[in-house]
Amino acid sequence: MEHSDIYFNVLCSVDTRWLRLTPHDDLIYSHFRQDFPDLDISYIKEDEIKNNVNKAKWRIFCEKFRNIVEDYSFGTLLRADTKGDYSEQNTILVPRVQFYAIEIARNREGLNNEVKKRYKCASKAHMEAQSNVREIAA
């Protein structure tokens, strides 16, 4: 969950169209859009990506990166809806390279830039420091 918090705060801080998640972003993105050209990445429906047909397609996609992306199959939290934050209702557990593929596409296609408009993000450390300042001032 800590990685999710950090990533969400990064989304709030930068123009995500230029954000690089891995040294292999270009390769991941090109294979992703080649294999899943019509996938609506603004809202991922878990039953659509995990049904028998698509699960098999994703498995083939992920295996392409077995020797390229470290921990390519490690479980990673993905926001289902780009308009939401990381919450129990808005997260799906996916293999790491699937997370990268979808998030790289969301970044390059401008969908994650909405996060800055919708949320005021701050790291937990910053929020705790602000809280301590308020307590001292009181």
Automatic annotation (TrEMBL):
| Top-level taxon in the UniProt lineage | Eukaryota
Ranges of residues in domain Polysaccharide biosynthesis: 2-116
A single Gene Ontology CC term = cytoplasm
Q: Which PANTHER family match?
A: PROTEIN PBDC1 (PTHR13410:SF9)
Q: What is this protein called?
A: Polysaccharide biosynthesis domain-containing protein
Q: Where is the organism placed in the taxonomic lineage, from the top?
A: Eukaryota, Metazoa, Ecdysozoa, Arthropoda, Hexapoda
